[in-house]
Structure formats: C-alpha cells, structure tokens
Design goal:
By secondary structure, the chain is mainly beta. Helix content is 2%, strand content 35%. The chain is elongated, with a radius of gyration of 20 Å.
Length: 300
C-alpha cells in the first residue's frame, strides 16, 4: 500500500480537545474571539476554546505568533476608537470571521482618525464586516506592509457615517495588496476612494469586488505609480460626477485592467482610465439614462 500524507492533522490545544484541521488552513495556534459570549474575557487562559473566548481581537493579536489564526465568532463586535486602535503587527497571521448576515463579525470605526493598521507582512483578513460608526473616518484600513489580503469582506456606511477612504496604500512599503470578493455600500458624498493607490506598490490584485458608493475622486486607484497592478472583473457603481470615477491609475502605472463593468453619473468615456496598462473588455455607462454600458476605451 502506498502511503500518502493527509492534508489533515491532529491538534491539541491546552484546555481543549483533540481535533483534525487542515494544516494549510490552520498551520499555527487557533484563537477564538467573541465579545457577546457570556464567558468572554481578555485574560490569560482564555481564547483557546469557543466556550471561553477572548472579548476583543485586539487582545488576541498581542498574543499571536506567525501562522496563528484568529477566529471571530458569530456576533463578535470590535470597536476601534482611535488611530491604530486595531494594530495588525504580527507577521503571517490570519483573521477569519464566522457568521452570516447580521451575525457576521463587525469592526466599527467610531472616531474620525480611527483605523486598522496593517503593520506587518503576510496578513490575511477574511469575512469581516467593516462599519463606519462616525462621520468621515479618514482612512479605515491603513496598509503599511506587503502581502496583505482582504477576502470576502463587507464595507458599510450610510448617509451620515462613512469612511472617506476605506483602504489606503502606504507610499512606499505596500506591495502585493490583494482585495477580492468584497462588497462595499457607502453612498456618502464625503467619500473619495474605496482604495487609494497613492504609493508605488507592485503586483496589487483587485478583483471580483462589488463596489457601490459616492467616491468623489475615484473608486479604485489614485495618483501613485503602481506597477504590474491587476484590476479584474470588478462591478462598480459610483454616483460621483467625476472624470474616470470608477478606475483611474496614474498615467505611467502599469498592469492589467480587464473585464470591469462600471457605471455612474459621469458621461460615457469618463469612467475608466489606465493609460499605460493592458486594457480589454471594460465597460462603462452613464446609468442615469436608459442606455447600456459601452466598451471603454472604444475600439478604433
């Protein structure tokens, strides 16, 4: 009989039981966080079982090591009130939210300068709900290191509360940001960007997102000269009447901008701009009228 290595392995945590998990998904220790649990406590000895979780993600991160996974359980609510109020400063960690709809774990920004700083490399955040809890959060997620991934996350503002910028790239140090399968709904007129590409990052991937808002500068992009950037298969509705309001990369930025479908109130031929990138199958339309989106740039 040929022996094969299973992708499952047995893990025993102090105070817990033996279980089998996938080593590629959970390579390190697993920590549990649930603010709404009656037994939750930010105290040594907690966090190792969903029956005795930590109360805050911020406390858990201080104890995590590279390759550890934090699981935010259904209904968890994290409040970020100040600048760097949630600091992801341990390299290689993963944060996973569990729960659907109203039970999806939330991170609510309650101060104008409140933000989640990404201050270490190789961090992934999945299935979390980021909420603007005050008017004009300056920049909700500040990415200062390489290889940061946001996957299957939700971003919510309303007519009163919003994030001016939801995700901002550091000027020099943020390479290979990946944002995929996310949903944003923030129609406040104070918004400027969903993601502000202000630096010189290489090999960003922004794909398969649904982004609805009033992004006064641009939904995806910015003035930074990014390189090898991939903007692929996004669906964007931006009501701001601004030239290149859906996607705008700097004139010398390089990469691939393909398969995006966007609309808003800006006139046709103003939705997408990426002069030095490879462009194909992007569509933009003025959705104020009974017309379909058109290929942009138009084939000549």
């Amino acid at each position: 009989m040929v022996k094969r290595r299973s992708p499952l392995f047995m893990q025993h945590q102090p105070g817990g039981v033996f279980d089998y998990v996938s080593v590629d998904r959970y390579p390190g220790d697993v920590w549990f966080i649930q603010s709404t649990h009656a037994s939750a406590s930010d105290t040594a000895g907690f966090g190792q079982s969903p029956d005795a979780p930590f109360a805050t993600l911020d406390y858990a991160i201080a104890l995590m090591a590279a390759s550890d996974v934090a699981i935010c359980m259904p209904g968890h609510a994290e409040v970020v009130a100040a600048a760097a109020g949630l600091d992801l400063d341990t390299a290689g960690i993963t944060i996973i939210g569990v729960g659907n709809g109203a039970l999806q774990p939330t991170v609510t920004f309650t101060g104008a300068l409140a933000d989640m700083d990404v201050d270490a490399a190789n961090i992934t955040v999945e299935h979390m709900h980021f909420v603007a809890g005050v008017a004009d959060v300056a920049a909700a997620i500040d990415v200062n290191c390489a290889d940061f991934t946001l996957r299957n996350c939700r971003f919510t503002g309303d007519g009163t509360f919003c994030a001016t910028i939801w995700v901002i790239e550091h000027l020099t140090d943020s390479h290979r940001i990946t944002i995929e399968d996310c949903y944003c709904n923030d129609l406040n007129a104070s918004n400027t960007h969903f993601i502000n590409l202000q630096g010189v990052g290489d090999s960003h991937i922004i794909r398969n997102n649904i982004l609805i808002g009033d992004f006064g500068t641009v939904c995806i992009g910015g003035a930074g000269v990014v390189t090898n950037c991939v903007v692929l298969d996004n669906r964007i509705y931006n009501i701001a009447n601004t030239a290149e309001a859906a996607i705008h990369l700097a004139d010398t930025a390089t990469g691939i901008v393909m398969g995006n479908l966007a609309g808003g109130t800006a006139a046709q031929a103003q939705g997408i701009g990426a002069t030095a990138c490879a462009l194909a199958e992007n569509y933009y339309g003025d959705l104020g009228g009974d017309v379909s989106a058109l290929l942009e740039p138009v084939v000549t």
